Amino acid sequence: MFKLDRKLIISASVVTIATVFAAGCGAAETGAAESNVVAKTDISGGVFYPVVNGKTSVYHVNMQAQGMKLNHGRVPTANELKAWDKDVMPDGTGLPEGEGSVEDGEELYEEKCVSCHGDFGSGGGGYPSLSKGNAYELQETLTNNRYRDPEADGPTRVFGSYWPQASTMWWYIKDGMPHPKSKTLTDNETYALTAYMLNINEITIDGEEVDDEYVLTKEKFLKVKMPNEAGFEPNIDGPNSLSGIRTYYANPANFGAQKVPANIADRCMTDCQEKTAKTVRIANGGISEFNPPMSIVRDLPKTKEAINPKQAYADNCAMCHDTYLAPGSSDWAGYTSKGMAAVYKNAIDGTEGGMPPKGGSTFSDAEFKMVVDYVINGK
Amino acid sequence: MDNKKSQQDLEISARRDFFKKTAALGVTALAGTSLAADDKAIMHHVPWGQTWGDPITKNLYGVPSKYEHNVTRRYTKLLASGNYRASIAVTPIHESEGIITPNGLFFSRSHGGVAHVNPDEFRLMIHGLVDKEIVLTLDQLKRYPKVTRTHFIECPANGGQEWRGPQFNSLQFAKGFMASAEWTGVYIKTILEDLGIKPEAQWMLAEGSDNSEMGRTIPMDKVLDDAMIVWGQNGEALRPEQGYPVRLLLPGWEGNLCVKWLKRLEFAAEPWYCKEETSKYTALKPTGKAIQHFYANEVNSTVVSPSPEKPWKDLADGDIIEIEGLAWSGMGTITGVDFSTDGGKSYVEASLKGLVLPKSWTRWSYMHTYKKGETLLLTSRAMDDAGYIQPTIDQETKVMGVESVYHRNAVETWEVTAEGKVNHVQIRS
Q1: Within a domain: B62
Q2: How many domains does one find in chain B?
Q3: Which of A228, A334, B163, B174 has an alpha carbon 20 to 30 Å from A142's alpha carbon atom?
Q4: Is the pLDDT of residue A120 over 50?
Q5: Has residue B257 been placed in a domain?
């Protein structure tokens, strides 16, 4: 058992860590004589400010408050730990037993996810795409960079092509989805949806295709190897990862940073732009759809206008509804035939299918009914 | 020459100069500002001078003047992940003063909407590879010895829409994914002294209690350095948008790492691979490899005045105008800012102003003599005590390409037209 040594932690936590983990010291000593560079760096390549003479940088520190045994709080019960410790790690820590089929996953997806994430996870309305096709082929697009060729396709970063670990997907579906009603899926439903995600991304498990008949279990899930698992730097796995990260960020060439010359007076003050550099202006008008519209005028606020249902729709509903029960769509008949009271209630309270209460707006009930009328009638 | 004498000579000649200039200015001033009629604002009684003001019983929690209603956060559909529950509203940097952002203007970013946590039901669980696992109520958390620090928080996607060229003709949207405040809370290392940490612990998971259960993995280096759990923001409780009642603060590091509505800290030997440190907040390079765990926001700066929102108006030839800006670095303290009027071809040193604190906004300025009809390319370039200087756009994209979304800190340029209009441009190959 290791207890924090307060003297060490106060004077130099970087050193403390290096000692504790025997992972090599990341604190690089640099000559500070004629430069503006301080002596010690932290894991990110930034400055480590120790406490010296009761101060850290310009801040005074109450040295009396260091290293006291305060014993606040209480020990959590086993059930409390179980209730909150729900994270799922790549090695399967935290992953419960269970199973779910691609078929069940597709059904659940159609019911709870498609309204935002689109058919087969294609995205839409600004919501994230979950698949763009075969993950192994798309992983190869990650070297696409419009820096070299502005006309080229960019990289495709979706679950299958980009995410390094499948555990992230299971954990996020279980904890954060469906977005308007998170933490409502069972473990088996989460397995089913994860199976469907693997299916639409055409990911194989142990050489086996995750086809429509596939049933995903914990054992099979732990065999998933994502195509882009090795696509990230620096390495963060294993007992020496922290020292590796320190080394990575000690080298500015790794992350596009520039160092000041050792003598600060040597930095470029004339002729500092590349010869080929030119003035690039905003193309095609740029993005100027700001809410509220940009203004620096000092005047009295206008009195609140009556709501404009069309604008309210555009601001709050269009992102999903443009592709699903759009204004004036004939598909509305299937809902309005059951009576407007039910339609208004669903619109105001939200639905299981992903419609948030009042579309996420802050209108009054009466105002939002006007928006609903617009969406149904298209005018 | 006798130093004393020469000093005196200088003073006399400076004074003579001053009188000459004043006389010259006096003439222009008279010529330029003669009014056809007296100013009503002076000649009339103003309504607020002739009637009672509000009683002190009104607005017991104060609000800005109603004339300031345009000074707000703003949002745009482009930055919404589908809806405004996973989106960002940005800080009006063009209206900001000093190095503190008022709490109501602090940029607001969430992944599952702004949670409203009942402080009575707040619990913080600290567990995993510690000698003693604990649960704290809010009152118990606040019994730890407090520290107060001024730090900015910046979303690493600040400026991230503009890797391939300028898009926003707006300071608020080009640089407003950040804000600064004075934070009060407790160092996590102080709590860990109480709990004891096992030697194999390398990582800490911080998890929020919001709808998205936002989580991030943090290396022990930061936990044992200046990582804080904060509940105070500019002298009051955190705003809900900032994680009321409690958020994590990792000074200088990605805003996303500063998990809001905090509920749980777990320590482990291996990292977690949370959604927001894999699918997002990773910076793809032209090599096809993406930087993960990209912690610190690198040294950065911008001209704040003028801005596209607040161009120069009514400037006469020879007027002296203060060009002001902000500089900041998540890697340390700002040591200097260079300023350019030709888009970064040549630089002069600008002056730092006011408090210069680590991992904090720092004000700088340069006094410019305006020439009627001139066109300028205003660029600033900051340096920090970690030894870094802002790259040119070409230098940065050479390594990072243009697909990385996050951590863009190359120099930024405002073009001032002959009419004083200000346009966001980029100088690049």
Answers
A1: no
A2: 2
A3: B174
A4: yes
A5: yes
Residue with the bigger pLDDT between B156 and A125: it is B156
| Predicted-complex ipTM score | 0.91
Are residues B368 and B237 part of one domain?
A: no
Please report residues of A whose CB lies closer than 8 A to that of B196.
1-4
Say whether pLDDT at A73 is over 80: yes
- Overall pTM surpassing 0.80 (yes/no): yes
**Interchain CB distance below 8 Å, A296 and B296:** no
Distance (Å) from the alpha carbon of B11 to chain A's nearest alpha carbon: 30
Cis peptide leading into A178, omega within 30 of 0? yes
Residue type, A97: E
Is there a single domain that holds both residue B83 and residue B232?
yes
Tell me the average confidence (pLDDT) per consecutive run of 10 residues in chain B, 429 residues long.
46 50 46 74 94 95 97 92 88 98 97 96 98 98 97 98 96 98 97 95 98 96 97 98 98 98 98 98 97 98 98 95 98 98 98 98 98 97 97 97 97 97 97
Residue A352 binned pLDDT confidence (cut-offs 50, 70, 90)? confident
How many angstroms separate the Cα of B319 from the Cα of each of A62, A181, B13, B378?
49, 59, 22, 17
What are the b/e assignments for A288-301, b being 16+ CB within 10 Å? eebeeebeeeeeee
Would the CB atoms of A272 and B344 count as touching at under 8 Å? yes
- Domain boundaries of chain A, sorted by first residue: 1-73+237-288, 87-221, 309-377
Q: Which of chain A's residues have a Cβ under 8 Å away from the Cβ of B295?
A: 43-44, 249
Which one of A282, A302, A320 would you mutate to disrupt binding with B, by most B Cβ within 10 Å of its Cβ? A282
> Considering the domain boundaries, does residue B278 fall inside one?
no
Contact A46 B386 (CB under 8 A): yes
Residues B213 and B309 in one domain: no
Q: Are residues B153 and B236 in the same domain?
A: yes
- Does A36 touch chain B if contact means CB atoms closer than 8 Å? yes
Q: A309-377 maps to which CATH number?
A: 1.10.760.10
DSSP B275-311: GGGTTSS-EE-TTS-EE-S--BPPPEEEEEES-SSS-
- Residue-number span of the structural domain to which B328 is assigned: 300-425
pLDDT at A308 over 90: no
Specify whether B162 is located in the same domain as B206: yes
Q: Token pair of B351, please?
A: 């002056």
- Helix ranges (H only) for B38-89 are 40-43
